[in-house]
Specification:
Layout (H helix, E strand, L loop, with lengths): L5 H13 L15 H14 L2 E8 L2 E9 L2 E11 L16 E2 L2 E3 L3 H20 L5 E9 L7 H9 L4 E4 L7 E5 L1 E10 L14 H21 L10 E9 L9 E10 L5 H18 L5 E9 L2 E2 L5 H14 L5 E4 L5 H6 L3 E4 L4 E2 L7 E3 H18 L1
Parallel strand pairs: 3-6, 3-7, 7-15, 8-14
Antiparallel strand pairs: 1-2, 2-6, 4-5, 5-17, 8-13, 9-11, 9-12, 10-11, 16-17
Helix pairs in contact: 1-3, 2-3, 3-9, 5-6, 7-9
Bound molecules: zinc ion.
């Protein structure tokens, strides 16, 4: 097995956590990803990789380090987001303090631990004389926590055969995650003085009908066959706003719906579901009027167990961990879906810890070191 430099990985992770890389779209005072990208770029260049920067928007920097192998072979991208969510309520968000084998701070778990492991894997391969084939691409991307500017830009420039996203999975191998669709429904009424029932049309009451049918749809989703790794689909009425004053009939009511999708459900399928629900309102009451807008759709992700990258990562992890990793699914959406949609066979594996988006966040250092070993061995097997 390749030698993994645990001391290097711990130092790098501590440095990464000490660099503020809060996503500026979540906190306007945050600096963005330039500093952390330059840190990763400098470290990977001194390990022997070729480094390139991408800046889809000013200050939103993604770095890609390329380590060519010593023989022809496949290309593998290791992908981690370098941005974090905000630090509201945290005592010492950039401490990088180590206690009892845990490294603390914003992003330690989600997902600078994964990024440090990737850097440790590239360094191990470089130190061993790049015995792999093809090439390894290490990508530390911007903006995953908001709109995935970084990976969206990346898939326009790189076409790796496979990708491993190192979002935390407690060293299990994640083969699927959910997607989501955001919809906005606006019911139309007619404003009138509150005493003039003969003139007013109440948009809020009409939205009530929509909500009742959405509630029935939500129960129906629960009855459908769940996905074996990510469970059933779901939806919720996330925000609701209608009316302008007590003595006025509401002219409009706006509802934002989030529909969480499972592998096999497409954008068209879930949009049609809502469209049909609105059409039924018109059938019942021809005066019913509503508009539907699709705000954002992120596809679910799934990779088969027998995909070459899954087999390589499973074999590598079994060797490094001394146990066969479990195959799991996760509910949150990840950049994995974008890489898979761009044609890279993609799988997810990351470190152990707790506190993603919470007030106390930590990652287990031993799991970060082990993850580096799994990634490096998988690269040797796959590339
Ligand atoms: Zn994450």
């Amino acid at each position: 097995m390749l030698a993994i430099d645990g001391g290097y990985i711990t130092r790098v992770l501590q440095d990464l956590v000490r660099i503020n890389s809060v996503n500026p779209l979540l906190d306007p005072s945050a600096p963005g990803e330039r500093e952390i990208a330059e840190y990763v770029g400098a470290a990977m260049a001194s390990a022997g990789a070729q480094v390139r920067y991408h800046e889809p928007r000013p200050g939103r920097v993604t770095v890609v380090a390329r380590l060519r192998g010593s023989k022809p072979g496949r290309s593998l991208m290791l992908n981690a987001h370098a941005d974090t969510v905000d630090v509201g309520g945290m005592d010492d968000p950039f401490s990088g303090e180590i206690r009892n084998g845990r490294l603390y701070g914003r992003g330690a778990f989600d997902m600078k631990g994964g990024l440090a492991a990737m850097m440790g894997a590239v360094k191990a391969l470089a130190d061993a004389g790049s015995p792999h084939g093809g090439e390894i691409l290490l990508a530390a991307v911007a903006d995953e926590e908001y709109a995935s500017l970084g990976t969206e830009e990346l898939v326009r420039h790189y076409r790796p055969d496979a990708a491993i996203v190192t979002e935390p999975t407690a060293l299990d191998v994640c083969l699927a995650h959910k997607g989501f669709a955001w919809f906005e429904v606006t019911t139309r009424g007619r404003a009138a003085h509150g005493s003039r029932y003969d003139l007013g049309i109440d948009a809020n009451m009409r939205m009530g009908r929509v909500l009742a049918d959405l509630d029935a749809l939500e129960r129906d989703l629960r009855g459908r066959t769940p996905h074996p790794l990510v469970g059933p689909p779901s939806l919720h009425a996330a925000t609701l706003a209608g009316g302008s004053g007590l003595s006025t009939y509401a002219a409009g009511c706006r509802l934002q719906i989030e529909r969480r999708t499972i592998p096999g459900e497409s954008r068209e399928m879930v949009t049609d579901e809502v469209r049909r629900l609105l059409r039924r309102q018109v059938e019942r009451d021809p005066s019913f009027q509503a508009d539907l807008e699709v705000l954002l759709v992120r596809e679910p992700f799934e990779v088969p167990e027998d995909a070459a990258i899954v087999r390589a990562l499973t074999e590598a992890s079994t060797t490094v961990l001394g146990r066969r990793p479990a195959y799991v699914g996760q509910t949150p959406w990840m950049d994995a879906a974008l890489l898979a949609a761009a044609g890279a066979e993609t799988v997810v594996m990351g470190a152990t810890g707790e506190g993603a988006h919470a007030k106390e966040e930590w990652v287990d250092l031993a799991s970060v070191h082990q993850l580096a070993g799994c990634l490096a061995e998988a690269a040797l097997l796959y590339c």
